C-alpha cells in the first residue's frame, strides 16, 4: 500500500547546519497495517510524515502509494489518498466554519469539488450518524462554529474528518500530544475504533512508548534519520518499555561505535 | 437634503458591489488586496472608452468587469506562484494598473455625457411605466417640495446588488465555496483535504476584483465619466463599508455578513453626504472622514463590549456581597 524506496533528504546541504533528516529509508506497509513510529526529537519522524504527505519531496528515492509513484505529486493532489491528523488540535479544522461545513469539506476530499451545495440534507443525516459514534454530543451541534469546541473535541472531529472517506493511508502525527491524559485516552480509543472499522493503513507517530506498544501491529524506531528498529507480529506483542529502552541503548551504542570507527 | 440623501442611497447601492468584492478578499480569503484601487478604475475606464467607441453599454459593462477579474487573477498569481507577500502583490498590481488604465482610456478623463449609458437606456424604458409618478406622488403627499428625477437607478441597482449578494451567499456554501472560505481560515487544513489553495486564491481574488470593476463600470456610467484617479482610496471605502456594516448589522452568518456589507456601503455614503452638509467641511476632507469612520467602527464595538462585560461583573460582585451580608 505504501512504499518508500531508498528515500533521503538533507536540509541546508553544504552549510554548517547540514542535517541528514532522512537517510536511505526503505519502508513497506501492507494494506491494513497499523504502524507506530517512535524516536527522539530530530529523529526524522516528522520529516518522514511530510515526505509521505507531499509536504516535502525527497532529494533521492521514491514514494509509492498503491503502487503508484507519487514522489513529485503535490500535497493537495496526494491528499485525495491520505488522511492526516496533526499534533495541534487547531490545525485540522477551520475554526470560523461550522461542524457540518468542516465535515462537508472533508467529505469532498476524494471527489472533485463542484458548484453544488456543500451541506445537503442527505449529508447532514450522514454526518449526524457518524458524529454519534464519537459519543461527544457533537451530533446536536452541527451548526456550531468549530472554534467553540475544546481541543479534545476538535481533535476527535479532525480524526473523523481524516478517516470517513476511507483514505488509502492515515497519517497521525502525535495527534494526542497536546491533550490531557483522559482526552488523549479518548482519542486513542476513537483511533483504534476507526482504524479497525475501515481497515486503514496507518502510520502513527508518538512520543509515548506505552502507546506505541499498545497500539498497532508493527513498531518502528527512528534515530538520526534512519529506521533502527522494525518489529511486528508476536515479537511486538511481547515487547515492553524496558526492552525498547535497552534496544535503543544497544543500537545507539553500536551506532556510535561504528561512527567512531569510520571517523578513525 | 432629501435629494442628496436619495443620491447617497443611489450611489451607495452601486458601491455596495465593490464592498462585496472587498468582503470576499478581505474577510473570506483574509487577503488584504489593494488591487481594488486600480481595478475599480479599470472597470470604469474600459467601460467608458468602450461606450464612447460605440459598444452597447451592457456589453461594455461586462467587459469592464472581466478586465477587473483578470487583474485580480494576476494579483493572485503574483501572491501564490510568485510567493510575493499579499499586501505587496496588491500594491504592485495597483501601481501597474494606474499606467494600464491610462493606456486603456488614452486620456486621464473619459466623458460619456453625450453617450447613452446603461442607466439612460433603463430610464427610457422606465419612464413609460409611470412608476416615478407614483413614488413621487407619495413623497409630495408626505410634504416633500423637491422630488428625485428618477427612481430607476436605485430600484434596479437594489435588485442587481441583492442578486449579487444571493449569488455570493450561494457560492460560499457550495463545495468550492467552502474550500475557498477554508483557504482564508486554515490553509494547511484544506490543503490536507485535497483543495488546491493556489487556484482558489487566484479565482477568489479574481472574482473579488471582478465585482470591484463592475461597481466601477456602473459608477462611471452613473456619473457620466471615468477618471484615472477615481479609484484612489477605494480600498479604504470598501473596508469602511465592510467594517461599519459588520459593526451595525452583525456578521453571524454569511447571509447576514453580506447584507451587512451592503448596508455598510449605503450607511457610509449617507454619513459622507451628511458630513459634507456641515459648513466647515470640504469635499477634500472626505478621506479624513472615511478614516475616522473606520477607526470608530473598529474601536466602538470593542469598547461597548468591554463596558457591558464590566457592568456584568460589577453586578455579579454586588449580588455576591449582598448575599454575604444577608448571611
TrEMBL record, chain A:
SUPFAM superfamilies: P-loop containing nucleoside triphosphate hydrolases (SSF52540). Residues 2-249 form the ABC transporter domain. It is a peripheral membrane protein. Keywords: ATP-binding, Cell membrane, Membrane, Nucleotide-binding, Transport. It comes from the Bacteria. The keyword ATP-binding applies. It is found in: Cell membrane. GO terms for molecular function: ATP binding; ATP hydrolysis activity. The keyword Kinase does not apply. GO terms for cellular component: plasma membrane. Its main location: membrane. PANTHER family: NITRATE ABC TRANSPORTER ATP-BINDING PROTEIN (PTHR42788:SF7), TAURINE IMPORT ATP-BINDING PROTEIN-RELATED (PTHR42788). This is Putative ABC transport system ATP-binding protein. It comes from Oceanobacillus limi.
TrEMBL record, chain B:
GO terms for cellular component: plasma membrane. It is found in: Cell membrane. It is a multi-pass membrane protein. The chain crosses the membrane at residues 12-29, 59-78, 84-104, 150-172, 199-220, 226-249, 256-276, 288-306. CDD domains: TM_PBP1_branched-chain-AA_like (cd06574). It comes from the Bacteria. Pfam families: BPD_transp_2. Keywords: Cell membrane, Membrane, Transmembrane, Transmembrane helix. One of its GO terms (molecular function) is transmembrane transporter activity. InterPro entries: ABC_transp_permease (IPR001851). Its main location: membrane. This is Putative ABC transport system permease protein. It comes from Oceanobacillus limi.
